[in-house]
Design a protein that fits this description.
Layout: H1 2-16, H2 20-33, E1 50-63, E2 66-69, E3 73-80, E4 85-91, H3 93-97, E5 100-114, E6 119-132, E7 138-152, E8 157-167, E9 183-194, E10 198-212, E11 219-220, E12 226-238
Length: about 240
């Protein structure tokens, strides 16, 4: 997936006359500063069901007079433990290309479902971990997503709205500066088109609306100067 991603990226840059080194800097900064992914699982799988999912997308940035989503990518595997609980694990493939082994591992737990309304609520506690290949440095962020989803018959596609929450445990940030933000939240809304063997997903996210996006090495598209708007596309194979 990595070589294809770069081939696609370089082709797009050539067509749009985008400076390649600058674009790589933008992608690297986005991977490090706003590396959150879309919701891994919104609705738990059936007991014994397995899925493999690929996601592409990221925060919107201004670059060479264009507004483009950074092409951050990840791959996830998940399995239904019970009808109400599923476990998942991922690999952030773009982070891997830049020398960081990053994964988020967790569970999706259904906490409420109304049969007549086809309305459900789920929570996703997880750990997001990253280790540098170059110097061995390690970081871990606890996560907790809360999602409300509404199923649409006959194939049980669904729309959802929710909140992703990251928790920063470190007391310092880069260059030993004090860490002043320990809770990062991301409101999100999405739609999953569900078929027998395949699901297709789009998610819109407002990443870190509690953090100003300036000054920064990248011009993020946020709201009122805060955070970054993100767009993510995903495809899932069920088996």
């Amino acid at each position: 997936m990595g070589p294809f991603l770069f081939e696609l990226l370089f082709s797009f840059a050539a067509i749009m006359k985008i400076n390649i080194p600058g674009l790589i800097v933008a992608i690297t900064a986005s991977a490090l500063l706003f590396s959150c992914a879309p919701s891994r699982l919104v609705r738990p799988l059936s007991k014994g069901q397995n899925v493999i999912n690929a996601e592409l997308g990221g925060p919107l940035i201004e670059y060479s007079s264009l507004t483009i989503p950074t092409p951050l990518s990840s791959i996830m595997y998940a399995r239904g433990i019970t009808d109400n609980t599923s476990a998942f694990g991922s690999v952030h493939t773009t982070s891997l290309l830049f020398g960081n082994i990053q994964t988020d591992i967790g569970v999706c737990q259904k906490i409420y479902y109304n049969d007549s309304l086809r309305l459900g609520i789920s929570v996703n506690p997880a750990l997001n971990m990253v280790c540098s290949i170059w110097d061995g440095s390690f970081k871990c962020w606890p996560e907790a997503d809360l999602n409300f989803y509404w199923e649409i018959k006959p194939h049980k596609s669904f729309v959802y709205i929710g909140m992703e929450n990251w928790f920063e445990l470190s007391q310092t940030r880069a260059e030993d500066q004090p860490q002043t933000t320990h809770w990062i939240f991301c409101p999100q809304v999405g739609y999953t088109y569900s078929r027998t063997k395949w699901d297709y997903n789009i998610e819109l996210k407002w990443i870190a609306p509690n953090i100003p996006n300036l000054p920064n090495v990248v011009s993020y598209i946020g709201i009122s100067g805060n955070g970054a708007l993100g767009v993510y596309l995903g495809v899932t194979r069920k088996f």
